[in-house]
UniProtKB/TrEMBL annotation:
Topology of the protein relative to the lipid bilayer: Multi-pass membrane protein
Organism ancestry: Bacteria, Bacillati, Actinomycetota, Actinomycetes, Bifidobacteriales
Cell compartment(s), UniProt: Cell membrane
Protein name: Multidrug ABC transporter substrate-binding protein
Database matches in InterPro entries: ABC3_permease_C (IPR003838), Macrolide_Exporter_MacB (IPR050250)
Length: 432
């Protein structure tokens, strides 16, 4: 009771030191919870979440390189020489399989030239084309780019349950405007190589691409390319007729079982003969890395900040301890010793004077960090949604306990460092 009473009185006499110790503890514990949560989120994003990806891999002509080799004029390039056939893809996949890489899935988008009765391209010299998608998943990584249906409804790929899947198309907004086409209109697709092959289809919707890209970049003229399911393009005789043909622009996304297969897949395909005129890319991995790049960059800064915070917090706390129980308290120690108070009890009093504000501040900061980790991590990198894991909580607990133990040791040592000579000198100074 004596120690607690003296502790409370001392804290009242040294309000500035008490408040500053508490604020230091708040800052360090708050920063610990938030900082460690962000670092944990970054680690999870680059390991567990990344390793769980099933990345799509694609071979695409390096059009920039090829155009540069042609003197910068894309019109001089015979792109059919760089198109890959179904047989080419089968060969490369077989080689990858022999190297121990198994595909989880595959999606295709095949673009062919097409004529449409009564419909003209949006500009002179342009050629109408149609892209047949194997399924909805093929769209996300396609050369055409993602799109928005501005009128009508999207394509259907369920030929077993939807009779419209093999008879409807999407028309680009620019082409629809040029030819006054509307949702529900019927148009006739004509095979340019064989005008006797025709197919009447209904326009289910008008679409607009989310991002613009030039034909030189992708080989796709977005304003003049109709979209459909492969059921439509095959029925029209535009795709799927010759597996060895390179007349069409075939773009296949091969889905791997894990990112660890990507390097093995690339090596196997290059070894099988795919030239440097083709890029091997994974849109899945590229998009994911782009998404977490702000988090990785932010985490690198947070890591430095956390270390600096611990160093600064430790130095400030030590200075405050020295200020609170330093030479200025020697007289008090002398008096208490003379009236029979043991140095252990004096050390315990000093400990409580500093432990209580540190403990209260530490708990307050940790609570604030718990509720602030998610919004602050999202401010650093959108979609991070950092959560305070059990590991983070235990780390903060152990750091806090370490700080408390260190404080207690310093206080006990300070109380026992006061010698008889020091006491006498202190009393003599007080009587002068």
């Amino acid at each position: 009771m004596f120690v607690l009473k003296n502790t409370w009185a001392a804290m009242g006499r040294h309000k500035a030191q008490t408040i500053l110790l508490a604020l230091t503890a708040v800052a360090v514990s708050f920063g610990s919870v938030v900082g460690l949560s962000i670092l944990d989120a970054a680690n999870t994003a680059t390991t567990t979440t990344y390793n769980a990806l099933t990345p799509s891999v694609m071979f695409r002509a390096d059009r920039t390189r090829i155009i540069n080799e042609a003197g910068g004029d894309a019109s001089k390039v015979d792109w059919t020489k760089y198109n890959l056939s179904w047989e080419n893809y089968s060969t490369y996949v077989e080689k990858a399989t022999n190297a121990g890489v198994q595909l989880a899935n595959a999606h295709s988008a095949e673009t062919a030239k097409v004529n449409v009765d009564g419909v003209s391209a949006t500009k002179d010299g342009a050629q109408l084309a149609i892209t047949g998608f194997s399924d909805a998943d093929a769209i996300a990584d396609s050369l055409n780019g993602s799109y928005t249906v501005v009128k009508g409804k999207d394509l259907s790929y369920d030929t077993n349950n939807d009779e419209n899947a093999a008879s409807t198309v999407l028309v680009p907004q620019a082409l629809a405007t040029k030819n006054n086409l509307k949702v529900g209109d019927t148009i006739k697709l004509v095979n340019p190589s064989d005008s006797s092959q025709t197919l009447e289809v209904k326009i289910s919707g008008i679409y607009k691409t989310k991002s613009k890209s030039s034909e030189a970049q992708t080989g796709i003229d977005q304003d003049n390319t109709i979209l459909a399911s492969t059921a439509v393009t095959m029925s029209a005789g535009l795709t799927g007729t010759d597996t060895s043909s390179t007349a069409n622009l075939l773009d296949i996304a091969m889905v791997l079982q894990s990112p660890s297969d990507y390097t093995k897949f690339e090596k196997a395909v290059r070894k099988a003969g795919l030239s440097k005129d083709y890029m091997i890319t994974s849109p899945t991995i590229n998009k994911y890395n782009d998404k977490i790049e702000p988090l990785k960059n932010g985490a690198a800064k947070v890591r430095v900040g956390v270390i600096a915070m611990y160093v600064a917090g430790g130095v400030i706390a030590l200075l405050l301890l020295v200020w609170g129980i330093g030479r200025a308290r020697t007289g008090e120690v002398s008096f208490l010793t003379m009236v029979g108070v043991t140095r252990g009890r004096i050390g315990w009093q000093f400990s409580l004077e500093n432990l209580l504000p540190i403990l209260v501040g530490w708990l307050a900061g940790a609570a604030g960090g718990f509720f602030s980790a998610k919004p602050l991590s999202n401010a650093l990198a959108a979609g991070t949604n950092a959560t305070v894991s059990a590991g983070t909580i235990w780390t903060v607990v152990w750091i806090g306990l370490g700080a408390l133990v260190a404080t207690m040791v310093i206080c006990l040592v300070r109380a026992n460092l006061t010698t008889a000579t020091t006491m006498l000198g202190s009393r003599m100074e007080e009587t002068r």
